[in-house]
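Dissemination and training. As part of the outreach component of the grant, students in the summer workshop were shown how a complex can be specified as a set of sequence lines and then modelled as a single object. The example used during the hands-on session is reproduced here so that future cohorts can follow it. Participants entered these lines:
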Amino acid sequence: MDTSSALFLALDLAGTFAFALNGAWTAIRFTRLDIVGVLTLGMITALGGGMIRDVLLGAVPPATFQDWRYLAVAAVGSLVAFVSSRSLHRLATPIVVLDAAGLSLFAVSGALKALDEVGFVQAVILGAITGVGGGTLRDVLIREVPAVLSSGLYAIPALVGAFLAVGAERVGAAALPGAMVAAAVCFAIRMLGVRFGIDAPGPPGSRAPRMME
Amino acid sequence: MDTSSALFLALDLAGTFAFALNGAWTAIRFTRLDIVGVLTLGMITALGGGMIRDVLLGAVPPATFQDWRYLAVAAVGSLVAFVSSRSLHRLATPIVVLDAAGLSLFAVSGALKALDEVGFVQAVILGAITGVGGGTLRDVLIREVPAVLSSGLYAIPALVGAFLAVGAERVGAAALPGAMVAAAVCFAIRMLGVRFGIDAPGPPGSRAPRMME
Amino acid sequence: MDTSSALFLALDLAGTFAFALNGAWTAIRFTRLDIVGVLTLGMITALGGGMIRDVLLGAVPPATFQDWRYLAVAAVGSLVAFVSSRSLHRLATPIVVLDAAGLSLFAVSGALKALDEVGFVQAVILGAITGVGGGTLRDVLIREVPAVLSSGLYAIPALVGAFLAVGAERVGAAALPGAMVAAAVCFAIRMLGVRFGIDAPGPPGSRAPRMME
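and obtained this result:
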């Protein structure tokens, strides 16, 4: 395995672990599922984005099914979340932070993988889809409006991260720093949006651009 | 590009534009999303049906990602919907009309593309899936029961349009008039169903065949 | 067609028929859809799991579109459910039994088909995905929390059935008895779970592991 493949795999597995914890804790917090439901939602959240990416790229069976490490990391992450849920008094903060981490890592890894198959703009879009995909499946399954629709700064940081990753690759920047900076910028924008409740502008004339629940 | 490809592309891009406007206005009307949510829902509605079609046909990466015009048309349509939403006092009518237009155009373009790969009946079904796919993703994401389930005349006009398009192709009719008539018949059936509230028959013994909300 | 292919097809078509009845009756019971909605939900439930499996395996167009018997069996099953719904005073029991039957048959057929392409563990997971896929699409479309998340013994029997099917194949057991035993064990675990309301353990410290509605 060359350096580039190793970097891609590391990003992808780190994102898988973050989303597994996030999905499993979400299951515990919002719906009081039993262990099977918690593991299932953790694994779908962790593996969903990459599966959508690979299906759209024609890279099937998806990496998830060809490399046992994805399944192992997703299962371990979900189990860790399950057994540790009691010691965490409030799950809200880790859920949000891990979601931002998974979003950032997958946006970058997805864009870099897509760049081998499609053009620049399409790779950015596919990276963003990879980042938001798992969380969107998670939200649909637990009947929440997906964050990608309701949260102002969710798709934007994913697009920025994917754009920076693809741009760094194109201008010949060193792979590891390029990917790390891209993921860090995505993560920072997302967390700033969460911290300060920033939303993108609403339609002209509307007063309440936020999702009504 | 030969005539047949140009016709297919024109139908597909016109359907993309119609569904982008429809999805974006739906986001504004039903959920008061901000600009990112509006653009996201517009683009998913516009590109979803074709992506499902291409994934099922094995034509990956989907046309959406191989041809920049799809992304551009979907983005422009969503933006136009966003900036024009204030001047439209009531969005209900254009939403319904554009949904019928996208349904018709995609049912025909999907069926014609599928016919290169699969048999007659399967091409009709795949055309109908292309027509209803984007709107179904839209409805699932905003937590509505999809029109394809709740609306009596939604799947039927898509099947009729796809059938006519495939039939015209098979009997050697001229491509452009064949496709236009197929789409027009689909559109007319759908709009008649909306105008007169026509539903298909309910199960034997039921009195209320409509979806209860 | 050799014996193995015939066995696979028989399992797959039997699962298709069971899920078509289940999906159509679910549509009638929960949502009072008209005939088109009933047929649509029946066919999505019947064909969804196999389509997800084939897309993930890269076996596209999916068997559903290459072999007319899938569409025919799904349509006939949905129609039978539609016309027979009045004579059944209570649909709850047949809905649950047919869901368990479809789950079992698809878990086994999905695992056996996947084993040609991917490794042992991945084939088990893909078999389980095939089993739960159609019902999950059904539940998302009618806005229910999917059984795979909310029901303790749903994913587990699918995984057990897929594991037994793949294991029997690997140890060289005769194909037909191996597949039948695997499906029967899956069905029995699922029905015991339903009968006795068995759930898997909840997170440590939680008192109410069941889904709250």
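Chain B touches chain A through 30 residues (CB under 8 Å). Students were then asked to discuss how this feature might be tested experimentally.
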